[in-house]
């Protein structure tokens, strides 16, 4: 009898622990919102009449369906890896008709390929979701969420959510350096242009804060002059294009400085800066250390370094994407995206300021318990 009671008590304890763990996981899940350009677009541009689309093969060749998803990748992009780390489903594009009901609780992806900090960036793509419009959609999303769960809970979901914003590279490659003597390059010297970009980006970040975002990952640009497209167009000897490298070298430190200033002004660690340039430099300068055989040649493309034009079914296509750092002339492979996402999650202060995502979420858990 005593042993039966002990066994029953033990079973109750085990069941209670299982239920507690399950509840903790559910409560730990948080919404995830994504803003920015093609590096993080999950398919919004599939719903737009624009040339900036990734909706045809061989995009998505390494997804379970082997079909294009709208991501500028052979498989996952950075938001997908972060969703995995959060234990959440991937965020749906905001324009997807599937983003209804309880799927709103997961968050949404507002990013759109081709956009920049400035409204005149990517004008050649015509119909894209510029930053001001992404933020308007975020407001609209919150109204839809409030209709689903009520205003108080909607505000809590947004305040506890993780936000990723990746934008800025196009303001150089698809604006300032797009053509010789571009309008912006005639208006600004490069240092002045960078300062102008930072001041405009600050406005976007403050608007995110005003809309309730309190945990915002902000990525800098990669080494702009080292992508296959720029090597093909600007580098006769395979060296990274100097002026674009100079642009990234000016922009990224000022972005971190601006973010630190915002955090001081707001009295907290609202914004987290991710040094994408340094991490990408790591595998560009030493590709073998990361399992790559090349960091210069794109897997999919044509011309020198497979860096000219678009990735299409008629392009050269490598048989093993895992040994290439770049998928197409501008975008990383799934494997490279995973390396960058791992830096966001676990990176040292050399890469993440003031802390990495794992530390941020741990701090948040301690604060809320």
Structural overview:
The protein is an alpha/beta fold. It has a single domain (28-368), classed as SGNH hydrolase (Rossmann fold, 3-Layer(aba) Sandwich). It is 45% helix and 7% strand. It has helices spanning 2-28, 78-86, 131-149, 151-160, 170-176, 183-187, 190-210, 228-234, 242-266, 276-285, 334-346, 357-368, and strands spanning 32-36, 107-109, 162-166, 216-219, 271-274, 300-301, 316-317, 352-353. A six-stranded mixed sheet has the order 2-1-3-4-5-8, covered by helices on one side. Strands 6-7 form a two-stranded antiparallel ribbon. It starts with a helix and ends with a helix.
Salient structural properties:
369 residues; alpha/beta; Rossmann fold; two-stranded antiparallel ribbon; 12 helices; 7% strand; globular; disordered N terminus; GDSL_Est/Lipase; hydrolase; GDSL esterase/lipase; SGNH_plant_lipase-like; lipid degradation
Query: What spatial form do the alpha-carbon principal axes imply?
Result: globular
What structural class is derived from the secondary structure elements?
A: alpha/beta
Q: Main beta sheet, described?
A: 6 strands, mixed
Question: Uncertain spans, ≥5 residues at pLDDT below 50?
Answer: 1-28
Report the CATH topology name.
Rossmann fold
Which superfamily, in CATH terms, is the homologous superfamily?
SGNH hydrolase
Annotated CATH architecture:
3-Layer(aba) Sandwich
What is the CA-atom radius of gyration, in angstroms? 22 Å
Mean pLDDT across the residues is 91
Major sheet strand order: 2-1-3-4-5-8
Q: Into which percent range does the helicity of residues fall?
A: 40-55%
**How much of the residues is beta strand, in percent?**
5-15%
User: How do the helices and strands follow one another from N- to C-terminus?
Assistant: HEHEHHEHHHEHHEHEEHEH
Domain count, please report it.
1
CATH class: Alpha Beta
Based on DSSP secondary structure assignment, what is the total number of beta strands? 8
Q: Cα distance, first to last residue? A: 40 Å
Total of helices: 12
């Amino acid at each position: 009898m005593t042993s039966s009671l002990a066994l029953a008590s033990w079973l109750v304890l085990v069941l209670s622990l299982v239920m507690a763990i399950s509840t903790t996981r559910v409560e730990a899940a948080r919404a995830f919102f994504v803003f920015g350009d093609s590096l993080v677009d999950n398919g919004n541009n599939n719903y737009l009449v624009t040339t900036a689309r990734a909706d045809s093969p061989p995009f998505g060749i390494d997804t379970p369906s082997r079909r294009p998803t709208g991501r500028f990748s052979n498989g996952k992009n950075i938001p997908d890896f972060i969703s995995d780390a959060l234990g959440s489903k991937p965020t749906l594009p905001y324009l997807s008709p599937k983003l209804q009901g309880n799927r709103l609780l997961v968050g949404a992806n507002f990013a759109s390929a081709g956009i920049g900090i400035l409204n005149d960036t990517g004008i050649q793509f015509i119909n894209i979701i510029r930053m001001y419009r992404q933020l308007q959609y975020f407001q609209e999303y919150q109204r839809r969420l409030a209709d689903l769960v009520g205003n108080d809970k909607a505000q809590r979901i947004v305040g506890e959510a993780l936000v990723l914003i990746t934008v800025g590279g196009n303001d150089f490659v698809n604006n300032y350096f797009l053509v010789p003597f571009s309008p912006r390059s005639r208006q600004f010297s490069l240092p002045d242009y960078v300062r102008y970009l930072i001041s405009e980006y600050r406005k976007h970040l403050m608007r995110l804060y005003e809309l309730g975002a309190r945990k915002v990952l902000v990525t800098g640009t990669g080494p702009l002059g080292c992508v296959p497209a720029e090597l093909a167009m600007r580098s006769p000897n395979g060296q990274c294009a100097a002026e674009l490298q100079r642009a990234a070298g000016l922009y990224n430190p000022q972005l971190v400085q601006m973010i630190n200033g915002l955090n001081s002004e707001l009295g907290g660690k609202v914004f987290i800066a991710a040094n994408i340039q340094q991490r990408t430099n790591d595998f560009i300068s030493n590709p073998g250390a990361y399992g790559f055989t090349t960091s210069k040649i794109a897997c999919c493309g044509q011309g020198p370094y497979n860096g000219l034009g678009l990735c299409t079914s008629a392009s050269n296509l490598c048989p093993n994407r895992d040994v290439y750092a770049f998928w197409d002339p501008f975008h990383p492979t799934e494997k490279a995206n995973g390396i960058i996402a791992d830096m966001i999650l676990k990176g040292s202060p050399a890469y993440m300021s003031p802390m990495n995502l794992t530390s941020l979420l741990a701090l948040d858990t301690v604060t809320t318990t």
